[in-house]
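Hi support team,

I submitted a single chain yesterday and got back a structure, but I'm not sure I'm reading the token output correctly. Could someone confirm the output below corresponds to the sequence I sent? I've pasted both exactly as they appear in my results page.

Thanks,
R.
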Amino acid sequence: MSIYTNSFIQVIQSISLPNKYTKWYCQIVARAQHRATAKKAAETICNCYIERHHIVPDSFYVDSTRPGATGWLAGKPNQSANYAFVTNQEHFLCHWLLSKMGTTQVYHSKMINALNNMRRRGKGQERYDTPITSRVYANIKGELAERNSDLAKGTASAKSPITGEQLGRISVTDTRWVTGEIVGVTSKNANPTALNTARAKCAKTGKSIGCVSLNDPRWVAGEIVGVCSGNKYETTQKTGVAKFRATGLSVGYRVPLTDPRWATGEIVGFNRKI
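Hi R., thanks for writing in. Yes, this is the structure output for that exact sequence:
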């Protein structure tokens, strides 16, 4: 049974670990709410810079407007009852405590990321300036790196091949990699989804169609060809640029060397004199 009447403090208690950090967090936000219910009033009472803090973090809600993974709680986070007006030191402490209260990986990762952002400054902000010990800093960065590593497993950075818009990290099992609707963002590391594929374009129109499997029959049929680059694609191996012996006109695509027309002399190498 919660000793607090505020519904948002009751929610954060119910979804957090029953430890000392949760207890201290609820005490801080309850004291801040009792102290003042508006920022200007809190600044007058505390005689210092004040920041608004969500008792139940905004990112925990499905309807959150913040970037990142969607939350899981129903309801509206931007209600006056969910606000605590705290000093910048209290604000940092609240986020540090939240990083110790998580019951799930999603809860914990969101709060580690929020804690890492507490040192960033924005226009009109006076963030926490007291030096953080090397041990606390190392723990924050270590947990943040672990969280990012867990979230990145089995994914790759993607973008639209048509607009170039970056779409973030997407699972490598997403079917859009195979259909060419998304392609990898250029980086020093090879895109894991690019194995056994090559960027292609329509042989007739020259329109790019993204990454296509090397097993696609359209390569052999000549309906698609590789997009020009400094590296030769696997689809160009064991093929040759050809022209018709009779007319001297280009065949229009690379012809496999196993094509019987090479042996019959119907087609010859493009640079060969007839």
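A quick pointer for reading it: The two ends are 95 Å apart (CA to CA). Let us know if anything else looks off.

Best,
Support desk
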